[in-house]
Amino acid sequence: MREISRKVAEIQNEGLGEHRLRDLNDEINKLLRERWHWERRIVELGGPNYNRHGAKMTDLEGNIVDVPNTSGRGPGYRYFGAAKKLPGVRELFEKPPELRKRRTRYDIYKRIDASYYGYRDEEDGVLEGLERSAEGAMRRRSGGGWRSGGGRRGRGRRRLLALELRRRCCLRRRRGREGEGEGVCGACSFA
């Protein structure tokens, strides 16, 4: 334990040079691995478990981090003191920038509700006023062709629709599109 603490104190000096810092860090990790093996053997023999309360790896700000094993030096490799600032090691502690996640079709449809399909358009009353004015304009354009159904629903609308279809058919004829025969569309009873 004394040897580990002495080397950890020595590695705090940033002026040692890159090679000396890497060697010291390797020696510290080797001693820690040996200590871990001894502590595991103590537990096997029935002694207390010291690994349960072991120290965690921290970054430069002191936050506890999980460092991925990209160096190939085995599991649990740690960096101490000035070794955290070495080139290639600093990138291990930096968080990768978050890539913008593509939205899936499920996420897009999850946000769609009834208002998207227009089911709540009547709630504010604006659409009702527009429909009323458009209906009045259609009645004026029909020129008296709108008749009340006389108590039966839909009859007046059907009458207006029939008049509109006849008018369109007659317009086609006037433009010279009746070359296929008279009354081709079936909506016009004029021959």
UniProtKB/TrEMBL annotation:
Per the record, the major location class is nucleus
UniProt keyword Nucleus, yes or no: yes
Its annotated compartments are:
Nucleus
Q: Which Pfam families match?
A: Isy1
Q: Does the keyword Nucleus apply?
A: yes
Give a Gene Ontology cellular component term annotated to this protein. Answer: nucleus
Q: Which protein family is it in?
A: Belongs to the ISY1 family.
For this entry, the protein name equals Pre-mRNA-splicing factor ISY1
Origin species, per record, is: Brassica oleracea var. oleracea
